Automatic annotation (TrEMBL), chains A, B:
The lineage of its organism: Bacteria, Pseudomonadati, Bacteroidota, Bacteroidia, Marinilabiliales. It comes from Gaoshiqia sediminis. InterPro entries: Tscrpt_reg_Rrf2, WH-like_DNA-bd_sf, WH_DNA-bd_sf. GO terms for cellular component: cytosol. This is Rrf2 family transcriptional regulator. One of its GO terms (molecular function) is DNA-binding transcription factor activity.
Length: 147, 147
DNA sequence: CAAAAATAATACTAAAAAGTATTTATTTGA
DNA sequence: TCAAATAAATACTTTTTAGTATTATTTTTG
């Protein structure tokens, strides 16, 4: 499962993709208030995303946060990789150590084969799902969908 | 991702399914040593599984742990549910609160629809994969597979 | 029946994740 | 140019997860 930090990040990115039109910034208090996330905690998270160029930010009056690149180019995979690390996708299901696919370097675990199909679908889901697609899904059902 | 506790539990169950023939018990020191898990920590975990009747145990000399039911009847789903809780499967991907499927009671989140397919496959995987099947997969490749 | 071998139970410590508080730096606009 | 508004940085606290240590209980066997 995703960490709280990561969930907050994804929701903030969807929010920004949806409400920050052409480069205009939204202040962290508004974002945190609307999404019901502790403000300073969200601050820390977004600062991290700014460093990774996924977000951009400006200080001072009328400052705030906005997407750092087109919403089409931000996938859930990018976000999870940045926050929870690539291990989230690569870790072995039942062991603390990584699990190799082939027997040459290291052994796979006992469920490696069975799990790999689902893992591939997961990877597919995370890398194919962009902020833009998510926002597209919401079009027309805004008030029916939880943010 | 599964908790360490849960990973340890799964590996111990595979181990017991594989090495404890017809009801004979294996001591916790041997299990923990072979699987490289801290002994007292594994003890706590296995005691929990005994309470849930997934394992059985006997004290005293020649005592130890063994499966509490046929390996065919123990699925990964059962184990994860017992250790990490059913929330592991039901939780919303991007929110801390649960996420309803229909709009009648509560709103689904913005990725609910897209994620539900993968989630179903995950559920399928966890509930269809039994300890018996995993052991079956290992047959003939024991020394090539990590436990 | 006593001693030894094992699990069971309980209480404690350490590390990581989540969250809070405070201070600093930057930008804008009056 | 100064004050206000904002993000950035840093340090701290709380909660949860992971792991350790100790003691009690049960069972077998000499």
């Amino acid at each position: 499962m995703l960490s709280n930090t990561c969930k907050y990040a994804i929701r903030a990115l969807i929010y920004l993709g949806k409400f920050s039109e052409n480069g205009e910034k939204i202040g962290i208090k508004k974002i945190a208030g609307d999404l019901d996330i502790p403000t300073p905690f969200l601050g820390k998270i977004l600062q991290n995303l700014v460093k990774q160029k996924i977000l951009s930010s400006t200080k001072g009056p009328n400052g705030g946060f906005g997407l750092g690149k087109p919403a089409e180019e931000i996938s859930l995979y990018d976000i999870v990789k940045t926050i929870d690390g690539e291990d989230f996708f690569k870790n072995c299901l039942i062991s603390l150590e990584p699990c190799s696919t082939n027997h040459a370097n290291g052994k796979p675990c006992a469920v490696h084969g069975r799990f790999s199909e689902v893992r591939n679908e997961l990877m597919e889901f995370y890398s194919q799902t962009s902020i833009a697609k998510i926002i597209g899904d919401m079009k027309g059902h805004e008030e029916l969908i939880k943010l």
